[in-house]
Q: What sequence folds into this?
């Protein structure tokens, strides 16, 4: 949707270039994931270096010579640091943002040290993997993910990440909650479920762009009280994409299409757009069914 909208705004008809940008934007979500995951590793490493440094001071206090190492010994943070999937992905993607911007790691460390989550953990006498996991999850959700400086850095680094940050943070929080000391290891997830998943992205983009005029005709007659120019551009794109799925993707259930695009409209369009779009799509489905225009293959697809 955003790629089609960008084509409209720039008056571009170079579908090859726009499709390439679409896939680059998707690929970059993986780098965003790796940057945030690697921040956890770098935070632990930075704290360990700090502990080592102050313990060797000439006039180090007793507490500085024998610091509380609970944080740097956290089993989950060490597991992430030693995880082959994470390390290989970082190397392959050449993600080394925190080596060049370690000041942000120090900012995050300061926020961590000041947090209630951290202080309660450091004062606790419990020593278990489960406690370590709860702590890292809560630390990420309550301190790291909402950190304004981190958000600003990520937004400045790549503007297309603005919409991806919540998605990636939710995924990482879920992974941290499910991480185990043994058994199935922590892994960097794939961007696509399979090759068909990636092909769907390409086909939906191409079929919507190449058939925009025809797709628009499907709903213009269903909006007698609305001039074409009065329909918000985002709403028009959403309707075209939904109708494209209705007519050109027989394996996608009608209800799934409607629900997905209503959610997108609530997030990106006007407050009343979802009601407007739902009414049009509902009427279209009834017409298509009456005229046998809606061909869906498989059970439960209507």
A:
């Amino acid at each position: 949707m955003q790629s089609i909208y960008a084509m409209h705004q720039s008056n571009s008809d170079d579908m090859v270039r726009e499709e390439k940008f679409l896939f680059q934007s998707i690929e970059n979500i993986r780098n965003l994931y790796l940057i945030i995951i690697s921040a956890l590793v770098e935070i632990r490493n930075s704290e360990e270096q700090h502990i080592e440094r102050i313990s060797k001071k000439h006039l180090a206090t007793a507490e500085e010579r024998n610091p509380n190492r609970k944080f740097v010994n956290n089993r989950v943070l060490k597991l992430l640091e030693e995880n082959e999937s994470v390390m290989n992905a970082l190397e392959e993607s050449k993600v080394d943002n925190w080596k060049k911007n370690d000041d942000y790691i120090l900012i995050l460390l300061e926020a961590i040290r000041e947090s209630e989550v951290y202080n309660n953990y450091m004062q606790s006498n419990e020593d278990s993997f489960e406690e370590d996991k709860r702590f890292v999850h809560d630390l990420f959700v309550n301190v790291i993910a909402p950190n304004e400086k981190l958000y600003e850095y990520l937004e400045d680094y790549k503007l297309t990440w603005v919409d991806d940050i919540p998605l990636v943070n939710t995924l990482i929080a879920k992974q941290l909650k499910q991480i185990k000391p043994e058994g199935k290891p922590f892994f960097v997830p794939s961007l696509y479920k399979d090759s068909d998943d990636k092909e769907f992205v390409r086909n939906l983009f191409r079929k919507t762009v190449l058939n925009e005029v025809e797709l628009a005709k499907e709903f213009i007659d269903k909006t007698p009280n609305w001039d074409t120019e009065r329909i918000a551009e985002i709403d028009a794109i959403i309707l075209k994409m939904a109708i494209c799925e209705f007519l050109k993707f027989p394996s996608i259930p009608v209800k799934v299409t409607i629900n997905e695009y209503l959610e997108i409209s609530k997030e990106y369009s006007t407050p009343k757009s979802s009601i407007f779009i739902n009414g049009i799509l509902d009427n279209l489905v009834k017409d298509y069914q009456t005229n046998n225009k809606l061909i869906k293959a498989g059970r439960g697809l209507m």
In short: The chain has a mean pLDDT of 90.
